[in-house]
Design goal:
By secondary structure, the chain is α/β, with parallel strands linked by helices. Helix content is about 20%, strand content about 15%. It has two helices and seven strands. Helix 1 links the parallel strand 1 and strand 2. The protein is globular, with a radius of gyration of 14 Å. It starts with 10 loop residues before the first strand and ends in a 37-residue tail after the last helix. Bound molecules: (3R)-4,4-difluoro-3-[(4-methoxyphenyl)sulfonyl]butanoic acid and zinc ion (2 copies). The site of one zinc ion (ZN) has 4 residues, from helix 2.
Amino acid sequence: HLQGTRWNKNILTYRIGRYTRDLHRNTVDSLVKSAFSVWASASSLTFVRSHTRTADIMVEFVTYEHGDLYPFDGPRGTLAHAFGPGPGVGGDTHFDDAEYWTAGETGMNLLVVAAHEFGHALGLKHSRNPDSLMYPTYRASRSANLLSIEDVGSLLPQ
Ligand SMILES: COc1ccc(S(=O)(=O)[C@H](CC(=O)O)C(F)F)cc1
Ligand SMILES: [Zn+2]
Ligand SMILES: [Zn+2]
């Protein structure tokens, strides 16, 4: 994926396009907002929801071929992906709607996966620390580790 370095601004807009039917819309809205606030609370970044197409970070639930070079693979396997910082597709975050998205410990916890993906959308790579949000594999218990994020200091253009 485009691994841009860092955003060159501290106020980033996001827009939610296609939703999943696994959760009520306002549940998706609040989980996405919470996932961004994980990073906002650990940095000087501010995330503002936008309803215009020109948002920096486009958030969508899609399946299989969906218009970029990284088609999804059905249930399990790849859960989501995000492009690194940059114009256009930069920052965009896609969730595989073939997964069952939940707010709890069953299925795939949207808050955990979104917080991880938004880390990538901000330019972070994976961590070798199994307790880190940016550890490469998903574990439902990770929701307990939402606040164990790291290397955030390197995140921002000061
Ligand atoms: C904890 O959050 C995630 C862990 C693993 C994934 S993933 O299994 O979809 C991963 C994509 C990624 O690391 O973002 C895989 F390479 F596809 C997504 C979110
Ligand atoms: Zn995609
Ligand atoms: Zn990842």
